[in-house]
């Protein structure tokens, strides 16, 4: 390696350390290890060779390291104490002494080999850095910027300099974005593979809703209000069961916020997805009644059929459509939220009952 090449080589390592955050010493050690492997491949192990790169000049040296012994049994690895003292007066048994090997041809090619090694090492370090950065945000909600959407509907995003993809299947039906839009996304499991970092990203999972609630509602973030359960149909509607030990706290009011601002921020982030805040109750009957909001429930009875608990719910006829919801969504989410099957029945209102009674009297007359 010529002196000019040596200097350029070290300067390049300095630049990599600044730009990529890759420690220069680690790169030099990797180059020394790789060059030694290349030397042994070409020349064998007979010289018990070692390779050193001068940290100041970049000069590559190949030398044979021998252990100082009383009696030499392996000449390629050992040297007698007498011969060692002749070369270096302070030599002692058990120590080592180095002999530089004349390997000019190998050293001339070292710069080219070093470049290839550095390129590979840089790729490995970048891959490791990307994995470590993703690992730091694993199982959390992060802000991102939209870069593009491909023809398959996959969303390409930038998370503070990290490129990532939210698969189309992990986007809700309401998620429509253009380049430059900002959004929140849930980062799930992060795994290291042979080629790249595998990272689960989603806008559909319940964890995203849980994270948004923590971000927007301080009482949830500090534990004053607990999220007991979430039932979500992403892009359409979510029911959240909340509870607090503080009897003086307006739990629903705290979650909704003044003029609905807190919950509206979450709705806006989720592109209009409806969010129902439900009061959790230890008594499953009251919990089911609350979960069927906005429908007004007359009564809830817990029965058992074939070993399964069922909530038998009664509502007025005019409340039936509200209780069931569009395409059964309200009752379906309520059942998931409460963890119990819900069977809704109607009862006639007092007004309807009076009309029916009058009709029956007319027929008798």
Automatic annotation (TrEMBL):
Record's function text: Participates in both transcription termination and antitermination.
Name this polypeptide is given: Transcription termination/antitermination protein NusA
UniProt-listed HAMAP family: NusA_B
Pfam families in UniProt: KH_NusA_1st, KH_NusA_2nd, NusA_N, S1
UniProt-listed GO biological process terms: DNA-templated transcription termination; transcription antitermination
Segments forming domain S1 motif: 139-204
The family this protein is said to belong to: Belongs to the NusA family.
PROSITE patterns: KH_TYPE_1, S1
Keyword Transcription applies: yes
InterPro entries noted in UniProt: KH_dom-like_a/b (IPR015946), KH_NusA_2nd (IPR058582), KH_sf_prok-type (IPR009019), NA-bd_OB-fold (IPR012340), NusA_N_sf (IPR036555), S1_domain (IPR003029), TF_NusA (IPR010213), TF_NusA_bacterial (IPR030842)
Subunit note: Monomer. Binds directly to the core enzyme of the DNA-dependent RNA polymerase and to nascent RNA.
Molecular functions per Gene Ontology: DNA-binding transcription factor activity; RNA binding
Keywords of this entry: Cytoplasm, RNA-binding, Transcription, Transcription antitermination, Transcription regulation, Transcription termination
Cellular location(s): Cytoplasm
One GO term describing the cellular component: cytosol
Main location, first listed in the record: cytoplasm
């Amino acid at each position: 390696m010529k002196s000019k090449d040596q200097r350029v080589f070290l300067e390049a390592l300095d630049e990599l350390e600044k730009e990529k955050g890759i420690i220069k010493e680690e790169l030099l050690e990797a180059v020394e290890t790789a060059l030694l492997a290349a030397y042994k491949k070409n020349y064998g192990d007979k010289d018990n060779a070692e390779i050193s790169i001068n940290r100041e000049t970049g000069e590559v040296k190949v030398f044979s390291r021998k252990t100082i012994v009383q009696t030499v049994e392996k000449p390629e690895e050992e040297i007698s104490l007498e011969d060692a003292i002749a070369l270096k007066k302070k030599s002692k048994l058990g120590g080592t002494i180095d002999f530089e090997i004349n390997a000019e041809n190998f050293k001339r090619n070292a710069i080219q080999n070093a470049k290839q090694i550095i390129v590979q090492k840089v790729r490995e370090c970048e891959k490791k850095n990307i994995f470590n950065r993703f690992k730091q945000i694993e199982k959390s909600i992060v802000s991102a910027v939209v870069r593009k959407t491909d023809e398959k509907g996959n969303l390409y995003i930038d998370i503070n300099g990290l490129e990532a993809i939210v698969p189309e299947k992990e986007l809700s039906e309401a998620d429509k974005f253009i380049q430059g839009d900002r959004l929140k996304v849930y980062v799930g499991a992060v795994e290291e593979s042979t080629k790249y970092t595998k990272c689960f990203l989603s806008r559909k999972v319940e964890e995203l809703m849980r994270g948004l609630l923590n971000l927007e509602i301080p009482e949830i973030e500090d534990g004053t209000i607990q999220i007991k359960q979430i039932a979500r149909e992403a892009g359409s509607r979510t029911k959240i069961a909340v509870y607090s030990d503080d009897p003086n706290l307006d739990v629903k009011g705290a979650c909704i916020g003044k003029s609905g601002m807190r919950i509206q921020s979450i709705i806006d982030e989720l592109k209009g997805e409806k969010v129902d805040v439900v009061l959790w109750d230890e008594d499953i009957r009251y919990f089911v009644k609350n979960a069927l909001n906005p429908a007004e429930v007359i009564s809830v009875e817990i029965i058992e059929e074939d070993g399964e608990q069922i909530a038998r719910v009664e509502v007025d006829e005019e409340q039936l459509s509200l209780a069931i919801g569009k395409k059964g969504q309200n009752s379906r989410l309520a059942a998931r939220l409460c963890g119990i099957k819900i069977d809704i029945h109607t009862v006639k209102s007092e007004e309807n009952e009076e009309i029916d009674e009058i009709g029956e009297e007319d027929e008798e007359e």
